Amino acid sequence: MQTFKVKAEMQELRGLPFSVKVRHLETAESYFNRLKNANSIEFLTQTRLSASVLRVRAEIDKDELFATGTEALGQLPEGWFKNQRLRAVPRCQAEKCACTQLLGDAYLLCSLCAAGERVIQYPHVAGFVCRQHNRWVGPGLDVQSQLPVADFPRIRRADQTLAQLKRHPAFDLYQFMTLWQVISAWAKTEEHAGCFPLAMHAAFELETHGAAAAFPVSVTIMKRLLSGPFLTRLLHPTITRVGAVDILSSVLALELCAPTDSLADELLVWLRPVYFRVAVATRKDPAGKRKTAFPIGEAWRHDLSLT
Asked: pTM (2 decimals)?
């Protein structure tokens, strides 16, 4: 059933002289701007385009009206941009959960793939390295962040590993993004930037490329946290803080070029809610015997899986 009708003036605009190829996960706004520029229709604004689409359901918002008008203008299938947005990232089904906001507002398509055009994509986890051009294309809209990484195979391997981890039943986007944020914040200091191999890149800039530098380490830690034997060692009720730091540091040492105890401390702070869940599940009874409740449950949807 058709949700929208298009006014006569929109029907006239559908015969534009120049078509524009819509790009993978491209936003409606980005495609509209490229289509408008290619056909020199500067008079057409987003507001005017939205107004040319008749609202037939009261709950339809202005963004959906604009997307539908853009689809009509570019002769795309109805619902194209909605489907692209839903495909971009696995959405949490919990009501009002804003977990995917950690991805940011929008991403920039590889500038070489886009042939120099500015193509903005919906936030996604579809890959942070352009396989065709070996360029970093992670979160953000700064084209300067698209660093060539052909000489840094760890970043390319990490991107491939993340694609595999996303298929793991216990993988959680919120957990990965917050982990990446912790390591990125640690990396974006003059004291620690030199610990990352990417810092040796001739074009490396701390603020611009800190997230890219931290990416392989974040993927490695996430992979270990999805490993049952590793979690058993790291979260054992009898482990000391020093022992946990040693375990994490041994993993970090494989990725970094300097002592990593301070980063291990940061990760332990990030893991505090997990240690608390283990402590509650393994608390001692009045007789002094340890009572373990398995499986250790989740307090909320995005808790690290311990089952």
From this structure: 0.84
